Amino acid sequence: RLGYSKFKHEIAKALERAHVVGKTERKGRKVKKILEIQLPDKDSAMSICHVMFFSKPSRRLYASAKKLRSSRRRGVIIVSTPQGVMTVEEARKANVGGMLIAEVW
Question: Are 97 and 62 in contact (CB under 8 A)?
Fold first, then answer.
């Protein structure tokens, strides 16, 4: 359970599309909203072991669509683009770049 924000929800949905986490749901109303994320089973193909953040408030990292590369650690890289939050693979297919957020493996 996490405190809710639209940005956190978009990141969770991108991880859900990449099959890193299970179902994501927003629960509650108004001020008391929470984000509930189901973690995958131990038998699933991928489980979260590490998270490495690329951008932070003092240093933002941007990459064009041509410079986006897959994860070296067989993980998923999350990118914030003008078309929304998506994985690197989705961003390359849409031919958009953006701010690198984090890598999950």
Answer: yes
